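Entry 12.
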Amino acid sequence: MARASMARASMARAVAAVAAVVTVAAGLAVRAGADGAFAKYAGSALYTVLLCTLVAFCAPRARPAVVASMALGLSWAVEFAQLTGVPAELSAQSTAARLVLGSTFNAPDLLWYAVGAAAAWSVHTGVRRLAPC
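Predicted 3D structure (tokens):
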């Protein structure tokens, strides 16, 4: 791999890592400062944004549409898995599992995951346009 390509991948990973931290902070701020439907659905959207940052970190050369699509697919897979009851069992035993897998299927979450993926795609696309080639 060329040195410039490695440097771009390293920079993309650094940006993704910072974005992940900012996303977690935003989620914590929403939970601390809001409640009800706003906090729930903002959390759902931010869940997918966080997955976008993790996918971008793991695949720094992936196009924004691929990153957003993968994160959206993962979000939907986790939500539909909740129909099996397995995430609920795991969530009852582990706080980490509850945060990652949730416990109860909620159809509106599917829409809010798409909102999060679209927002992350938009930011990712903008950042890539601003970055030097």
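Annotation: The CA atoms of residues 35 and 41 lie 10 Å apart. The radius of gyration is 16 Å.
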